[in-house]
Design brief:
Blueprint: E1 6-23, E2 29-49, E3 53-57, H1 69-81, E4 86-92, H2 103-118, H3 125-135, H4 139-143, E5 148-151, E6 156-159, E7 167-172, H5 179-186, H6 198-208, H7 211-216, E8 219-220, H8 221-226, H9 231-242, E9 247-249, E10 256-260, H10 263-276, E11 282-287, E12 296-297
Parallel strand pairs: 1-8, 3-4
Antiparallel strand pairs: 1-2, 1-12, 2-4, 2-5, 5-6, 7-10, 7-11, 9-10
Length: 298
């Protein structure tokens, strides 16, 4: 059986707060993070087929097929539900890979949600969350992307007051930094400690919808370790700070985000970045405004 193509948007994220507080007995790291969705998004195109799962991408550095997390998500869902229905999935990449923006995790979550509908499986959200947690630490967030606090491996989430509207100027410095490598740079071992005090400040800023206070409470443990070791990351942070903008490493890097209250200010920062940095640096303006949930469209 074949049918019309369905397209789903898959938004990326920015960690407003990210602390790694210890190493768990199972080998995973204990994480406390506040995640905010942004409207920079990949597009996933789904076309039903009788049998088999096919995944292709339009990016030369991102594999298709069984090596892609979207393939693993589709196969896991099919095996769990006991369906033999197939699908061809084509991914249009707009979110840089290995950039700390959660692009792959978002794509996996979008696949779970879309295929649950297209295959008429009817799995409830708790079941999808369980599958998402098996695919990766960030995947559960993207099943319902909104301002939220996550703990553990990243699988235990709770909603927070929505962040005040802002624009994020994202600069990717043209080199990949895998999550595994970034965690290795942290070198964390030993018992779990409380999260950094900035967490309380950030939550209070969200409760007041105070963008200035939010900018002053941004925190990323990876930034403390990686900025001194990677000159390009340090240069990006200095670029924003030198222009009076709050800046933060995104996730485990290497993308750096500068926050702006208005689109005009974000455009000025983006123009300056394109003039200052090499042409292979990717500069994108994203926002936490508007409708960015991954909804199907025909």
């Amino acid at each position: 059986m074949t049918g019309n193509e369905t397209t789903v948007l898959s938004p990326c994220k920015l960690n407003l707060f990210l602390d790694v507080t210890g190493r768990r007995p199972d080998g995973y790291h204990e994480v406390v993070t506040v995640i905010e969705p942004l409207d920079l998004a990949d597009r996933l195109h789904f076309r039903p087929r009788r049998k088999g799962i096919s995944v292709t991408t339009d990016h030369p550095d991102i594999p298709g097929g069984k090596e892609n997390i979207v393939f693993r998500a589709a196969r896991l869902l099919a095996e769990t539900a006991g369906t033999e229905r197939g699908v061809s999935i084509r991914i249009e990449k707009n979110v840089p890979a290995a950039a700390g923006l959660g692009g792959g995790s978002a794509d996996a979550a979008a696949a779970l949600t879309a295929l649950n509908g297209l295959w008429e499986l009817g799995l409830p959200l708790p079941d999808l969350f369980a599958l998402a947690g098996r695919l990766g630490s960030d995947v559960p967030f993207f099943l319902n992307p909104r301002t939220s606090l996550w703990r553990g491996r990243g699988e235990r989430g709770e909603p927070l007051p929505p962040a005040p509207p802002f624009f994020a100027v994202l600069i990717n410095p043209a080199f990949p930094l895998s999550t595994r490598r970034a965690y290795g740079e942290l070198g964390i071992s030993g018992p779990t400690r409380p999260p950094h005090r900035k967490l309380e400040e950030l939550v209070a800023a969200l409760e007041r919808a105070d963008l200035g206070a939010l900018e002053g409470s941004l925190y990323n443990r990876f930034q403390e370790i990686l900025a001194p070791r990677y000159p390009r990351i340090r240069q990006l942070l200095e670029f924003f700070r030198g222009r009076g903008a709050a800046a933060l490493l995104s996730g485990s890097g290497p993308t750096v985000a500068g926050l702006a209250a208005t689109g005009e200010r974000a455009g000025e920062l983006a123009a300056a970045a394109r003039a200052d940095f090499p042409k292979n640096y990717r500069v994108v303006v994203a926002s936490n405004r508007g409708e960015i949930l991954p909804r199907p469209s025909r």
